[in-house]
Design brief:
single chain, 68 residues, alpha+beta, two-stranded parallel ribbon, 2 strands, Flavodoxin/NO_synth
Length: 68
């Protein structure tokens, strides 16, 4: 519970996420962002949201060096 929740209480719309559909979109090269996306998915599911985790594709082309 955050400081503002303690001071002002939780708004009603923040308590129920059963009608929320959430997309967690991530990109990772090392796997670190994947783990963060999974944690976000877990938290949202526990709150009642419908969650889909999507990995963004690589957009850059590999850098070519002279002579290749």
């Amino acid at each position: 519970m955050g400081i503002f929740d303690k001071l002002f209480g939780k708004p009603k719309e923040m308590e129920d996420m059963s009608n929320v559909r959430l997309a967690v979109i991530f990109y990772t090269m090392s796997g670190t962002n994947y783990q963060m996306a999974k944690w976000a998915e877990e938290g949202a599911r526990e709150a009642g949201a419908e969650v889909k985790v999507l990995k963004a594709e690589e957009l850059c082309t590999p850098i070519r060096h002279r002579g290749e």
